[in-house]
Amino acid sequence: MNTDLKRAGERPATMSRRGNFWVRFILSAVAVAFVWYFFVRPNSVELTWSEQEQLLGLAREQLAASVADEGLIDIYPPELSEKALRDGAAFVSLTIDGQLRGCMIDQFEPHEPLIVNVPRNTELAARADDRFPALTAEEVQRVRIEISIVYDITSLSYTTADDLLEKITPEEDGVILEIDGEIATYLPSVWQIFPDPAEFLSQLCMKAGWDANRWRTEPYPTVQTYHVFDFGEAE
User: Fold this and answer.
1) Which of 98, 101, 209, 232 could form a disulfide linkage to 94, CB 3.0–4.6 angstroms apart?
2) End-to-end Cα spacing for the chain
3) Is residue 235's pLDDT more than 60?
4) Distance separating alpha carbons of residues 230 and 191, to the nearest angstrom
5) What are phi and psi of 32, to 5 degrees?
6) 208, pLDDT greater than 80
7) Do 197 and 168 contact (CB within 8 A), yes or no?
8) 10 Å Cβ neighbour count for 184?
9) CA distance 123 to 73
């Protein structure tokens, strides 16, 4: 009888040891995944210098086609990188002598290969940015092209205007405000002009034609943040 009781008592101990093993295993796996995701994993949109040159070259070809009313280019270099063929979404910014001359993105979420999206947004920046007249052939050689590939789009949940300010990271976050279906955005580079978060949001509201304090007023705007990998032609 005592032997049976002893054996009956051993089984829970064995099961407990097995249970502890699996708990430790799962916790270790979670820890490894956490470290990899936040500290080790490569930026999936980061491009090599040659890959950047490919996309800048396509944008430059598109500028020439745009001012000649030839539409979107559809002939690409024979050896395109795997990343250039991935779906993506990219701002294309045009400047002349350091002054903005056009900047457009058609969608924020990745939706078509970068080799298609970059020419598309180059065309839009050159001809469809309603802040500027269409780019002319005489301006093409003076234009500097910059490409900003969007990633890590995050929807922010907040309860007050002060709470929103706490959740935005200056110098890192691009910001999207949406009110009644209208959208306004600033790239992370705009923090260089408006480093104060409250002023940044007020200027973004005014850019969209809203009251400067609209971001402070209920019902609050829908807010998303994003990061970019950006590169451009030599200045």
Assistant:
1) 101
2) 90
3) yes
4) 15
5) -65, -45
6) yes
7) yes
8) 21
9) 10
CA 37 to chain centre: 17
Sign of the CA dihedral running 161, 149, 152, 35: negative
pLDDT tens digits, 164-193: 999 999 999 999 999 999 999 999 999 999
What is the chain's length? 235
Prediction pTM value: 0.79
235: number of CA atoms within 13 Å, CB side?
A: 6
Structure-block tokens of residue 81: 């990188």
Q: How many helical (H) and strand (E) elements, i.e. helices and strands, does the chain have? A: 5, 8
Beta strand ranges found along 120-203 (DSSP E): 143-155, 174-179, 182-186
Q: Provide the pLDDT for residue 14.
A: 55
Burial 3-17 (b: 16+ CB within 10 A, else e): eeeeeeeeeeeeeee
Name the amino acid, one letter, at 8: A
Lowest mean pLDDT among 10-24, 40-54, 201-215: 10-24
**What distance in Å separates the CA atoms of residue 25 and residue 161, rounded to the nearest whole number?**
43
Long-range pairs for 98-106: beta carbons < 8 A, 24 or more residues apart? 101/125, 101/132, 101/135, 101/139, 101/143, 102/126, 102/129, 102/131, 102/132, 102/135, 103/129, 103/187, 104/128, 104/129, 105/150, 105/185
CA dihedral 108, 111, 116, 119 (to 10 degrees): -10
Q: CA-to-CA distance for 147 and 176, rounded, in angstroms?
A: 18
